[in-house]
């Protein structure tokens, strides 16, 4: 159980380092688009982890709250869901008896150990320079036998193809956006190597799955890209990575139904913390094998 004594009640300071801050005006559009595009896949993978009535679950960086709300329905009255974020403005409306919203910084604030059957995060760790240390902390917060599911973008492994999308400014704006994100500490390939990190940290039954979405101008995919361009556009232009004219042209292209807009690859990686029964089984195997 995620008891109150584990959380500092002092409001978390605005560190200013998050490239896509939830306090921005564009955050609501981004959260809505991410939910529409990726929630179905996220729910599928959570179900594969075996979520059931009575589980205690933690969602880090709950965003718009859609996944936390779904989990609270699945675990039922005997279960419990804790959803955290450094800015809970999109979560505070979640009023459910088995769901607790907590303002919490996963890098600096303490976590209970051995408390959760399932921990989920989506598009959080790639933004954190301390991402590997945070992964280790999340694993310690799992009950023996509990599951960690993390979902992160791989932005760079499948670059936009100019032969398909011939609008040169569109390519320039994407490059400018990625450059700003990288300079603000985002690991743009984090999702691709996530499963390897989980194995290295000792999780069992590690698997991974990649997915993406595509749409024309005016689609939900275009809306997601637009929200990012608008939020960081002034920075992109101010640093000289793209001109104001190129960016404006690109925003117009996002309304063109003949445009082809793709999301980055979303990698979902999951694994289970070994429990006492697993260690006994491993020891028995070693004995039988003469090791």
In what order do the strands lie side by side in the largest sheet?
A: 3-2-1-4-5-9-6
**Total DSSP helices:** 8
The CATH homologous superfamily: Vaccinia Virus protein VP39
Return residue spans where pLDDT drops below 50 for at least 5 consecutive residues.
1-16, 280-291
Overall 3D shape:
globular
What is the CATH topology assignment? Rossmann fold
CATH architecture: 3-Layer(aba) Sandwich
CA-CA gap between termini: 39 Å
Compute the CA-based radius of gyration. Answer: 20 Å
Sequence of secondary-structure elements? HEHEEEHEHHEEHHEEH
CATH class: Alpha Beta
Write the layout of secondary structure elements.
Elements: H1 27-48, E1 56-60, H2 66-75, E2 80-85, E3 99-103, E4 116-122, H3 131-140, E5 142-154, H4 168-183, H5 194-200, E6 204-211, E7 214-215, H6 220-238, H7 244-253, E8 261-262, E9 265-272, H8 276-289
Parallel strand pairs: 1-2, 1-4, 2-3, 4-5
Antiparallel strand pairs: 5-9, 6-9, 7-8
Describe this structure in words.
- The protein has one domain (4-155, 187-212, 264-289): Vaccinia Virus protein VP39 (Rossmann fold, 3-Layer(aba) Sandwich), CATH 3.40.50.
- The protein is 37% helix and 19% strand.
- The protein has helices spanning 27-48, 66-75, 131-140, 168-183, 194-200, 220-238, 244-253, 276-289, and strands at residues 56-60, 80-85, 99-103, 116-122, 142-154, 204-211, 214-215, 261-262, 265-272.
- The strands form 2 sheets. It has a 7-stranded mixed β-sheet with strand order 3-2-1-4-5-9-6, sandwiched between helices. A two-stranded antiparallel sheet has the order 7-8.
- The protein is globular, with a radius of gyration of 20 Å.
